[in-house]
Structure prediction request, 777 residues.
Amino acid sequence: MTATVSVDAVMLEARAAELGKRSIKTSAKLAGIDIAIGCIDLTTLEGKDSEGRVRSLCAKAIRPRPEWNEIPSVAAVCVYPNLVSVAKSSLAGSSVKVASVATAFPSGLVDLDVKLADTAQAIAAGADEIDMVIDRGAFLAGREQLVFDEISAIKKLCTATSAAQAIPLKVILETGELGSYAATRRACDLALEAGADFIKSSTGKVGTNATFPTALVMCEALRDFHRRTGQKRGLKLAGGIRTTKQALTYLVIVNETLDETWLDSKLFRLGASSLLDDLLMQYEKARTGRYAGADYIPKD
Amino acid sequence: MKFAYAPAPERVRPQLRERYGLFIDGRWTAPKSERYMETINPADETRIAEVAYGDAQDVDRAVRAARKGFERWSKLSPADRAKLIYRIARAITERSRELAVLESLDGGKPIRESRDFDIPTSAAHFFYYAGWADKLEWALRAQRAPEPIGVCGQIVPWNFPLLMAAWKVAPALACGNTVVLKPAETTPLTALALAQIVEEADLPAGVVNVVTGDGATGAALVDHDGVDKIAFTGSTEVGKIIQRRIAGKGKRLTLELGGKAANVVFADAALDQAVEGIVQGIYFNQGHVCCAGSRLLVEESVHDDVVERLTNRIRTLRLGDPLDKNTDIGAINSRVQLEKIRELVRAGIEQGATLVQAECELPARGFFFPASFFTNVHPSHRVAREEIFGPVLAVMTFRTPDEAIDKANNTPYGLSAGVWTAQGSKNMWVAQHLRAGVVWCNTFNKFDPSSPFGGYKESGFGREGGVHGLREYLKHA
Prediction:
């Protein structure tokens, strides 16, 4: 296991705030919106999710604004395991992937065999990507090896599948429950060592989700992992990302802490539901100088 | 699609006069010298405006006005003085955007810094000291009635023009003194804007006088028999001249001079955050900062790691138009300063240090210098000893805490220092042993009006800011 890395909140937050002050206007704003849309994991993770709801979300994922051809599809649709097959059939023929949460999302407090079964079921139903959660209780109790082993086990399942290529594994750290930036950094390092293809900030189910300083810590971990191993791993930020301004700041943080090659759906995702609507509205504003009424944006 | 930041220029343009007179006795007057000087924009070398050149006669007029003003101002009730100083503070806040542009235009600093640091901190100093005006008894150690000193000659530098004026004018006024302010030759405009604010705030005539000019103007102010106190911020060289010139004259003096601060990074520090502190310490305001962390002392075991992180980090610094909101490194203040930086960088290379520089295109016009640092620096190198006052850092190593302290204190200066370690006890122990006026722990360049600032050794004496700053403007303090 790698050595523990110190993180100090004062300068970390100062740097994150500084990056949040970048002024992204005109052509940069249009480019940023385009990148952000292409990196969205359009998400619905509610107890009341239904097949109909997932189908309409998928339609929007493929063509976010049907009258504008230049708008790209989003990266993926993210659903619960038992809606994977619905999403899969709705997205057939498109570039949009099906991501499924698994491992007893959002708490992860079940035994490993249940987590494995949950994941296997999602994969069998056609999931292209898996979003697992770590056992935060074990992590905070100092049982790092258990957390590591669980990630490794799920990773093994994702690579051993019959699918043509390995299924990317996103590891949700639930940073809002980890209590400090230093713990977040430690969890990032642990997940990357254990084989996470993406480190993901949050489930969206607790009070604190992705924040600018958290994103910065995660980028630092990814940058150091790349320095150490030569491998580029991905970042997924999720929870509470609703506005274009937030999304653009996250792009800035990635751009200046990692580099521009990370601004691609292979290495960067924004897990969000309502963000897409604001991006579409801001896109129109940036292009035409006018805001469209909310009714011009299709509800999903 | 490529994510390249588009230009984001600040579009507000300040109201400028073609030509500025001197602000003496509450009025704008033509200089007796009959001479004017140009002030230029260092980012494109274009002329911004003409300002009056104040000679010894003009200084004399200003000092006489300040003496007359003192009779009224010192007898005003403290609460009324406070009210007028609050007015200045509010006016700075209300005009902050315009003042920020003016500061960046005249001095070359990024608008991000003038907008987020210089102007708000200037206003904060006036707010802070306005609050003290009617509570001065509490500022004194002995229970004596507070008494102002009289007429204060205040000479400020070009690196933080309005802020340095605020540091000096606000406590002087709060204590009941009157001032003759001499702004720096290359950056007079925000001091003149402050004079406009003072005029609009209806302060009594002669309380604040602004005499623009050059070194000779400052010398005339220092030499004038009617001045009771000199407050100077600038180079150690000039500080020494001032101290000699006023010797035996009974004038009070505070000097805030040069520095060659050490930023001490231990192996156990949060290195990414230390790198942010290093960047903040040396590249803030193009390194035109007397308390800049211009010597990096890094524990040998993490030297290569820190250098690699720093090399990557300075690649992301954006150099260019000071008025672009995304600019991190603006223009060097003047051609003279640019030449001085170039000369010291040449000396660093000749003496065998290794130069690392951010690769970036420099604008065709204006005075620019890329973010730079030297590795393989030895304590005997000029770049390790002399104040460069530019975006150039000297990186050296140490092995033990004792060695770090020895090296950090091995300078004639002693203005500031930084310590970076995750261990609280080490942080405190090192801070106690550093001979510097300000020691920042796991952060750098943090300022607050309530916190005193000033130097050890050749970095000067006297304190500005906080209750300590008041005592410099009171008798018997």
